[in-house]
Amino acid sequence: MTTLSTYLMFQDGKAEEAMNLYIDVFGGEVESVSRWGSDGPGAEGTAQLAVFTLQGSRFMCFNSPPMHDFDFTPSTSTFVDFDDETELDRAYQVLSEDGAQLMPLDDYGFSKKFGWVNDRFGVSWQLNLPHS
């Protein structure tokens, strides 16, 4: 079986916190969480790998103990189409808190309303309310 998952790697032990935020914003469920043990390179009890779904899409987030010379980039983002403007506005507000607003919510011509943010973890989200 082939599966496709969006993979998010964190270097600061915040994978589980990020997963919980995304489940709160978009709705979803945790499939599994494996945790670092006393003999692992990560902090004991923290999430090592978490698998979860958001609106039927599968995500994996990993806490990487070693520091790397790279971070998240806006060239990789998750594009979300909303049916409801109120839900779009809430997602934009919550995800941009302590993050960065790359494109403020507005009508850019290609949809009714669009916004692009990097959340406080550096993950990039394009939020869209398409024309009917």
TrEMBL record:
It comes from Saccharopolyspora halophila. Residues 4-127 form the PhnB-like domain. InterPro entries: 3_dmu_93_MTrfase, Glyas_Bleomycin-R_OHBP_Dase, PhnB-like. Pfam families: 3-dmu-9_3-mt. This is VOC family protein. PANTHER family: PHNB-LIKE DOMAIN-CONTAINING PROTEIN, PROTEIN YJDN-RELATED.
